[in-house]
Amino acid sequence: MKERYTHGHCGAVVDSHARRTAANSAAFALPLLRRDHLLLDLGCGPGSVTIDLSQRVARAVGVDASPEAVLRARRDAAARGAGACEFLVADVYRLPFADAAFDVVFAHQLLQHLADPVEALRESARVLRPGGIIAVRDSDYGTMVHDPRDPLLDRWLALYCELARRNGGEPDAGRMLARWVGAAGFVDAVATSSSWTYAEPTAVTDWCTLWTDRLLTARMGEDAMRLGLATRDELEELAAAWRRWAAAPQPYFAFLHGEVVARKQ
Fold first, then answer.
1. Which residues pair with 147 in a beta bridge?
2. Which of 128, 129, 255, 265 could link 144 by a cystine bridge, Cβ 3.0 to 4.6 Å?
3. Neighbouring C-alpha atoms within 13 Å toward the C-beta of 79
4. Residue 253's beta-bridge partner residues?
5. Residue 211: which of 166, 259, 255 has the closest Cα?
6. Residue 113 pLDDT > 90
7. C-alpha distance from residue 223 to each of 65, 103, 167, 248 (Å)
8. How far apart are CA 107 and CA 184, in angstroms?
9. Average pLDDT, integer, range 146-151
10. Does residue 6 come out as left (phi exceeding 0), alpha (psi in the -120 to 50 range) or beta?
């Protein structure tokens, strides 16, 4: 099965991804990076993490299947004066690089969207030098908690998970990373976890906007209706539930990410 990216690339999605940094998305991998490393960032999106990582290594290359995301990454890199990185449109199953070309392969929030994450990891191993590092991080939707409780937000989560799986992905990928990395042939895996929390007012607003846009104006809502998983009226109700959550006193939303670092033999 060929996967379909559930989130799409609407403005709110891309802007949300562009707020990611090495500090909030790659902290587990930073101690392993060296100044002489060549790093590949798979599924780089608008490239904000790649740009940050490029400041810690000799060179960073970001690849993404979306030409729009790569264009945004190139623009943002130029605006930030980031000369030690480049961005390419590429298929993670058929990377356009020679064997053993990189010291580190990094992937953040990618494997959860792939129909065959182990095959993508095997391709990552091909472009890694012997002894090279794989570092992957993915969210685990099954760990999501929110307050105040609302049955409609529970329905939103169930809808997203069903849709993601229908699109070929695995929304609980975070808990599966160590198994996938081992199946791809990597060794010495170290599994950790960290969380994202949305409780500060700006973060609450951004998180609410992201999901209301995904429901009403982006691919998620379109696919849900196309597949008969939700009606337009239900999507409107789910978006209204998100707005109620954001307007409540002291709203809270959090979830875990699985993280794995391993080595190519």
1. 252
2. 255
3. 9
4. 146, 198
5. 255
6. yes
7. 19, 38, 9, 29
8. 15
9. 98
10. alpha
Which positions ≥6 away from 83 have C-beta within 8 Å? none
Cα–Cα distance measured from residue 110 to residue 113, given in angstroms and rounded to the nearest whole number: 6
The rounded distance, in Å, linking the Cα atoms of 130 and 44 is: 23
| Rounded average pLDDT over 150-166 | 97
For residue 139, the cross-strand partners are 257
Percent of the chain with pLDDT over 70: 100
What one-character-per-residue DSSP string does 205-248 give?
HHHHHHHHHHHHTSHHHHHHHHTTS--HHHHHHHHHHHHHHHHS
Both tokens of 92, joined, read: 């993670």
Please state, in angstroms and rounded to a whole number, the distance separating the CA atoms of residues 141 and 144: 5
Single-letter amino acid, residue 255: F
- The amino acid at 168: G
Residues 6+ apart with CB under 8 A from 202: none
Q: Are 148 and 248 in contact (CB under 8 A)?
A: yes
Between CA 50 and CA 55, with CA 54 as vertex, the angle to 5 degrees is 130
| DSSP tag of 81 | T
pTM above 0.85, yes or no: yes
Domains of the chain by start residue, with CATH: 11-263 (3.40.50.150)
- What Rg value do the Cα atoms of the chain yield, rounded? 18
Q: Pull the structure tokens for residue 83.
A: 């000369």
* Segment (H or E) for 25: helix 22-25
Q: Are strands 252-263 and 128-139 parallel, antiparallel or unpaired?
A: antiparallel
